[in-house]
């Protein structure tokens, strides 16, 4: 998007004359691109959106930020669609106290050696 400006009506995909492509011609180009990229046959254009969303979730981005990036009207829409990909509270909290205590003990030990 940084290299090319959106086409008519703000669309990102246009044909050579910057018009909205016909669905059939886009499909032909998409299948060719999938093959050249070595993606599995049957990969849909919409699969890129799910890949993008799952990558943002795996990077632990704030869910509200993900909602905005995907253009969802509500956070509920984001969680209803991708909620199963977010780590649950148990996953997020597991080891947090142990890591904090370990860090604090190491700092105390370092401070005693310096004193």
From TrEMBL:
<dbReference type="GO" id="GO:0006310">
    <property type="term" value="P:DNA recombination"/>
</dbReference>
<dbReference type="InterPro" id="IPR002104">
    <property type="entry name" value="Integrase_catalytic"/>
</dbReference>
<feature type="domain" description="Tyr recombinase">
    <location>
        <begin position="1"/>
        <end position="97"/>
    </location>
</feature>
<keyword id="KW-0233">DNA recombination</keyword>
<dbReference type="GO" id="GO:0003677">
    <property type="term" value="F:DNA binding"/>
</dbReference>
<protein>
    <submittedName>
        <fullName>Integrase</fullName>
    </submittedName>
</protein>
<dbReference type="InterPro" id="IPR011010">
    <property type="entry name" value="DNA_brk_join_enz"/>
</dbReference>
<dbReference type="InterPro" id="IPR013762">
    <property type="entry name" value="Integrase-like_cat_sf"/>
</dbReference>
<dbReference type="Pfam" id="PF00589">
    <property type="entry name" value="Phage_integrase"/>
</dbReference>
<dbReference type="GO" id="GO:0015074">
    <property type="term" value="P:DNA integration"/>
</dbReference>
């Amino acid at each position: 998007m940084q290299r090319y400006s959106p086409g008519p009506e703000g669309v990102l995909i246009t044909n050579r004359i910057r018009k909205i492509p016909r669905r059939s011609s886009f499909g032909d180009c998409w299948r060719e691109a999938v093959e050249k990229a070595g993606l599995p046959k049957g990969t849909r254009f919409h699969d890129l959106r799910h890949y993008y969303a799952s990558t943002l979730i795996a990077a632990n981005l704030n869910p509200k930020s993900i909602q905005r990036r995907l253009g969802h009207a509500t956070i509920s829409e984001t969680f209803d669609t991708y909620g199963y990909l977010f780590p649950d509270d148990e996953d997020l909290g597991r080891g947090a106290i142990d890591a904090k205590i370990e860090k604090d003990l190491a700092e105390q030990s370092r401070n005693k050696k310096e004193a």
